[in-house]
Amino acid sequence: MKITKRFLVLVILIPVITAASSRRDSLVNGQKTAPGPDWSALMSAMDKMHATMASVQPSGSSDMDFVRLMLAHHQAAIEMAKTQLLYGKDPQMRRLAQEIVTDQQSEIQLMQLWLKQHGPGSPQEKPAAARSGPEER
Predict the structure, then answer these.
(1) Angle made by CA atoms 42, 46, 48, in degrees to the nearest 5
(2) Number of domains in the chain
(3) Does residue 19 belong to any structural domain of this protein?
(4) How far apart are CA 40 and CA 110, in angstroms?
């Protein structure tokens, strides 16, 4: 059930982000009126996410890279959902935004715990020579 809920959130957010990107491009080209504070907050969250994700260097571990990239992605989702809660009017979208905040915060905590358990200096960290499997070579 939880996987289905997450999939639904992704199915909803992907077109929204794509539309936001298209609208942003048209704004840059002067085709639309100036954005409001809600739009600016959404774009700010996305810009911050992209900058954070771009600064992540490959670690040699697909698991580590996935978690480090997803942390920024989840944080942006929370910021965008909070913007929706601040400016949004539709009750269904506001409920969805609240669920996103709750779910993403929980997942961020899980990923941070995983990083603490598997990051540099952790007891479960394997030296590079001891790693096996195609994803870790």
Answers:
(1) 115
(2) 1
(3) no
(4) 30
What gap in Å lies between CA 69 and CA 65, rounded to an integer? Answer: 6
In the chain, DSSP finds a helix count (H) and a strand count (E) of 4, 0
Residue reference for tokens 């989702």? 77
* pLDDT digit string, tens, across residues 107-119: 999 999 999 999 8
Structure confidence by residue, pLDDT tens digits, 17-60: 666 665 555 555 555 678 899 999 999 999 999 999 999 999 99
Residue 55 lies inside a defined structural domain of this protein: yes
Burial of 73-94, coded b for 16+ CB within 10 Å and e otherwise, reads ebbbbbbbbbbbeeeeeeeeeb
CB–CB of 79/45 below 8 Å? yes
Domain assignment of residue 18, yes or no: no
